[in-house]
Please model this.
Amino acid sequence: MNPFIDRRRLILSGLAGGALAPLAAVPAAAASPARPETPDRPRGFAPGDWHSVRDQFRLSRDYAQFAAFTFAAHPAGVREAIATHRNRLDEDPSRYHRENADREVAVRTAAAAYLGVRPLEVALTDSTTMGLALLYQGLRLGPGDEILTTRHDFHSTYEALRQRALLTGAAVRRVSLYDDPAAASADQLTTRLLAAVTPRTRVLALTWVHSGTGVMLPIRMITDAVAGINARRDAADRLLVCVDGVHGLGADDTAVADLGCDFFAAGTHKWLYGPRGTGILWGREDAWPLVQPIIPSFGWMREEPPPVIDPGLMATPGGFHAFEHRWALTEAFAFHTAIGRERVARRIRSQARQLKDGLAALPGVHVATPRDDALSCGIVCFSVTGRTPREVVTRLESEHRVLADVTPYGGALVRLGPSLVTDPQEVDRAVRAVAAISRR
Ligand SMILES: Cc1ncc(COP(=O)(O)O)c(C=O)c1O
Model:
C-alpha cells in the first residue's frame, strides 16, 4: 500500500468528517513508547491572565522583547507538541510518520477554523515567502497581463513577481499609496491603488500590514471596490486580490474570510507563535484553478493528472518536512483561541497606541505609523532626529535592554512590536529609553 495515496484518502475523509483527535489522545506506536522531553512547562495556563500568557514563553526576561514578532518563540503547548513528535520520530520515523500522516488534516482544519474558511482551501507552507512564491510563481498569466503591486511591499513579493514576469511576459507595476505614512487615510490608500488599475491588470499583490511603516491597508474597502470592477468584467478576466498577511495574522482579529480577498499567504511563525518554519496559503476554492502548483504534492501519487478536489492539498509542497513543527501548529491556534482572538488584538492595539502616544510626545521623535487604530496594528515605526535607526536600535539594546530592529527597506526606520510577550510597563520603559537616546 502506498502510504501517500492512503494518506490522501485519509485526508479527504478527515476534511469531510472533521478534526483529528488531540495530541494527547493519539496512542503511541506499540514499539515506540512515548519518552517526551520534559520542557519547562509553567505551572498551569490561565489564558485570562496576561502574566500567565507571558509565562508560557521561555523568552529571556533580561530584555523587553519588542522584536519578538519577527520570528516566533514557542509557547509551552507548542514546545511540548514539538518535543513529543520529535522524540517519536527519532525513535521510529517511518512508522510514526505513517501513523500520523493524517495530522495535516488537523492542522488544515485548525487553520481553516481560525481563518474562517474551509479546510480544503488551505495549503501548508514553511513561511510567508514560500506561500507567496507558490502563489505568484504559479499564477496563470500571459504577455498581455499586468500585476499591480505597491512601493510598500516586502522583498518576497517583489522577487516572486519578478520571476513570474520573466517567465510569462506579464508586466509588473508598482504604485505608491502614500508619501507620508503617518498622514495616510483609508480613502487615499484605496483611491491611489484603484486609480492605477487598468483593463490589463489581473492581479493586485498587496501586504496587509507594511513592515516598513506599520501602515495597515483597509483590505475590505479595497476588495469591495474591486468587486465593483469585477462586476463589469468577464469572469475569466477577474481582478484577483492577493495578500501577504503575515503581520496581521495573530495580531488583528479580522477573520481572513472577511477580508474579501482571493488569496492570503502568511507565516505562522511570527505573531501567531506557531512553530518556526510553518505557514499557510489560503485561496478561495474558485480562485485556486488560476494557480498552477509548482512543487509536486504528495497528495496524489499516480501518473494520471489529479482530480481537482482538494486545491489546498494539491498546493501543499510534497516531500518530507520537519513534521514535528508542522503538526504542532494546531497548538498555536489553540493558544490564541484559548486567550480569545479579540483579547489578543485589543492587547496588542492598546500597547501600540500607548507606544505611539508616548513617542509622539517626545521632541525630536517622528512616529511614521498612523495613529489611527484602523490603519495600523502591532508594528510601530519611528525616527529620531540626529540619530540613525541603527544607532537607536543598538543603544536601546545595550543601554536600556530594549530589543527593537531596523526596518529592512530604503528609508529605514526604528521598529518596535508590542505583543503578547510585552506589557504596558515595558512600553513605558521603551518610551523613556527613546527619550533618553533622543536627548544625548
Ligand atoms: C511583510 C513581510 N512579508 C514576509 C516576510 C517574510 O516572512 P517569512 O519569514 O514567513 O517568509 C516578512 C519579514 O520577515 C515581512 O515583513
Remarks:
- The chain has 15 helices and 13 strands.
- The mean pLDDT is 91.
- Residues 106-337 form a domain with the Aspartate Aminotransferase; domain 2 fold (CATH 3.40.640.10).
